[in-house]
């Protein structure tokens, strides 16, 4: 029998850079949060998504991890992006530490639920940990624009 894929339990890596944060309580807040993230990327000097695939991958990972936390975790959900010079550190937390991230296994992709697999493929590292009753699910995504320095807001 094959090995069951998992989302590894790992501590959050050090992130240094500008920090952007969203407090989310419902799925209906995600479109505005995605738009806010895209706007912040533009203000920090990163080109629009159609010119920079890594920015759109960050937005997609942000949406997947935040929607998972809102569907399967407990409020409050906090999505944090650390904009570093070499990439992005995305951390999404919720108050359901007993509900570990569980990538779908043996499911037809047409039925959905493949978000953790997608985020794992997009990221250079990913994991989760629990700190003081709060579960954190994180991913590090590369930036194709490593030469760009995020500008302070």
Automatic annotation (TrEMBL):
The keyword Cytoplasm does not apply. GO terms for molecular function: protein serine/threonine kinase activity. It holds the Pfam family HATPase_c_2. Residues 29-128 form the Histidine kinase/HSP90-like ATPase domain. Keywords: Kinase, Serine/threonine-protein kinase, Transferase. InterPro entries: Anti-sigma-factor_SerPK, HATPase_C_sf, HATPase_dom. PANTHER family: ANTI-SIGMA-F FACTOR RSBW, ANTI-SIGMA-F FACTOR RSBW-RELATED. This is Histidine kinase/HSP90-like ATPase domain-containing protein. It comes from Blastococcus aurantiacus.
């Amino acid at each position: 029998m094959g090995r069951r894929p998992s989302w590894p339990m790992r501590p959050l890596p050090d992130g240094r850079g500008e920090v952007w944060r969203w407090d989310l309580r419902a799925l209906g807040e995600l479109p505005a949060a995605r738009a806010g993230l895209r706007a912040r990327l533009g203000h920090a000097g990163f080109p629009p998504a159609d010119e920079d695939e890594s920015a759109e991958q960050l937005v997609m990972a942000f949406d997947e991890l935040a929607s998972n936390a809102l569907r399967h975790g407990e409020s409050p959900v906090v999505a944090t992006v650390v904009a570093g010079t070499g990439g992005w550190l995305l951390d999404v937390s919720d108050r359901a530490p007993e509900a570990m991230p569980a990538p779908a296994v043996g499911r037809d992709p047409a039925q959905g639920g493949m978000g953790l697999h997608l985020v794992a493929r997009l990221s250079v590292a990913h994991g989760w940990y629990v700190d003081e009753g709060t579960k954190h699910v994180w991913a590090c995504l590369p930036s194709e624009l490593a030469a760009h320095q995020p500008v302070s807001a």
